[in-house]
């Protein structure tokens, strides 16, 4: 059994280890975003830490106003944090100049928004919508047109809407439009796709089909996918769901498939509380309510766990 001295030694040794997030595709370190509107400050992100591995398909959930869209806009390169550090695929999101930001948005990230109309240009066909980002990225050269249109057809087929190739968005259902939007987001082979409530305007069956297209992109192309969602079906079908509360990551659910001795597969979900870089931990509200925990708790370091007790007056 390890002694407390051993544990302390281990903790000290860790201080000299690799930097936080060194092997993550997305790394947010104590991210802060403060908005000022009419002289009033809103702290949308209050020291948020998040790491996302290359090739992950994960969901972000949280109450309205908890900071999910603010985070996604920062990761999309559309907004800049007030403080902290954030990087995606080696790009430092606080230090990019205008040219780097444009290149980042064209080549590193793809987005899918909730409003179907925001994702596609109405006067272009689905295939033309997919070709557009490739043209804008401007690699061009001989045979580019044929190459672009072949890639557009391939991507539309992959997400299951090859039949909509020559249709305008107005001639497609909401689900078909969102799937075409995924093909548009994939056009320049981004490292990551960010999606803000992509199934929010769809019924549940259509939402499932759209989510299946994200999964296909993730599995077939290895694209990392981060989806902000209120949709329980989506949140429950990914390996990792991170919950944001009051501008910080609060907890996460990790799911893995287990096979029993009869070969029967089942998904086991475990919920973890996040410990941030400053050592802060948010206790779930139902736990603090159940034990009437208010301003402080008693802590005790044991060999393999930390005891947390409500602060009761001494008898
Ligand atoms: N441009 C802005 N100016 C001022 N305040 C803002 C701005 N954008 C967001 N906020 C505020 O920041 C906080 C976080 O907002 P955000 O949109 O990130 O939350 P959310 O978790 O995405 O919510 P929802 O699920 O409703 O979309 C909210 O209090 C919001 O009012």
UniProtKB/TrEMBL annotation:
Coiled-coil ranges (or none): none
Source organism phylogeny: Bacteria, Bacillati, Actinomycetota, Actinomycetes, Kitasatosporales
Gene Ontology cellular-component terms listed: plasma membrane
Residue span, SpoVT-AbrB domain: 270-313
GO molecular function, one term: ATP binding
Residue ranges of domain ABC transporter in the record: 29-271
Name assigned to this protein: Putative ABC transporter ATP-binding protein
Species of the source: Actinacidiphila reveromycinica
PROSITE patterns: ABC_TRANSPORTER_1, ABC_TRANSPORTER_2, SPOVT_ABRB
SMART domains, A to Z: AAA (SM00382)
